[in-house]
Amino acid sequence: MNEYTLPIIFGITIGTLTRIYMLRTDYRQYPTYLHGKIIHTALGFIAAGLGSVAIPSILNEEFTAITFLTLAASQFREVRNMERNTLTELDSYEMVPRGKTYIEGIAIAFESRNYLVIFTSLVSVLGYLLFNIWVGLIFAVIALIISRVLMSGGKIGDIVDVEYVKPRFDGAGLYVDNIYIMNIGLPQRQEEVLRYGMGFILRPKNFNARSTIANLGQRQAILHDVSTALGVYRDSGTPALVPLAKRDLNDGRVGVFVLPQEKNIDKALKIIGAVPTLENAIRMPTERNTSEERSQS
Amino acid sequence: MVLEKYILAVITTNPSKVPSGATVFSCENKEEMESIAANLEAILDGIAHALNEELYVIVKH
Description:
The complex is a heterodimer of chains A (297) and B (61). In chain A, 60% of the residues lie in helices and 11% in strands. Chain A has helices spanning 5-22, 34-59, 68-91, 100-130, 133-151, 156-159, 187-196, 207-214, 216-230, 265-274, 285-296, and strands spanning 160-165, 168-170, 173-176, 179-183, 198-204, 244-247, 254-258. In chain A, strands 1-5-7-6 form a four-stranded antiparallel sheet. A three-stranded antiparallel sheet of chain A has the order 2-3-4, with no helix packed on it. The longest helix of chain A is centred in the middle third of the chain and has 31 residues, at 100-130. Chain B is α+β, with helices and mostly antiparallel strands and 61 residues long. Chain B has one domain (6-60). Chain B is 25% helix and 36% strand. Chain B is built from one helix and four strands. Chain A: It comes from Cytobacillus solani. Chain A: The chain crosses the membrane at residues 6-22, 34-59, 125-146. Chain B: InterPro entries: YpzH.
């Protein structure tokens, strides 16, 4: 036992708890069960350890010890790879796949949450060493709040207006509002589609949103989220019953066609609104003009 | 080899309209055409698309 033992244990505990707190199982059902959670809790523990020893090593004037943090960076990049590989493997067996963009978003989230753990541990140990354990706790809570803000991104509901539209057939063509979805030939399939199908129109609120929801990965993420939450009327070998999202080229609206097991319009509207805007899908075409003007002035 | 967007079969009541190079099922009437299209859709894991009243194609997507 030396003067740093307690602060380090404190930091590791706080960091691991932060990781467990961030590891919620929600409607996305990922990570699901015990083993996935153990992996991430263990990695969170390692991250917490790395964050906790940073401050004591600076105080001991062992500056080279800080280079350990670079080890953390490569370690957690590995986490991102691991998550990406697992999810990509599993995706081919999903009824409605997540899509590569969504997977990449999840993988990035797993990597960055470990950095948030390092940050939380580091800050709380700093508070403990500079003042006392209570200040350390306060620092930890502040860091946790910051982490919470950082880890929650935007939602689709913030950038588009969602509206329910009953899908219809024009000949063999399936339409949501005036957006053509697909051609379904067989009359009995058409009946199924009309009975179970739901259509939604996403109307972008501004020009940036238009490009964001045009992204195929973002659209797939919407389809996946709706299908996981409401179930899906589909089986392998029935490609005619696939949920699709198509775009109106004139004004950038997106028509979403889904076949849920549970036809609950209010719930579906809420779910679509709560789909995360994937950070890899976000486009800001309007930012370009402003930055050019800035560089000219 | 994985096929994408490929016409697997053509089902028609009017064989004179069908081009060569595809597997064609000529049918007597619309009911027969629909039942064959439904079966082929299930067998081939494709989608039966209606091009017009007398011509269905099964497409692999």
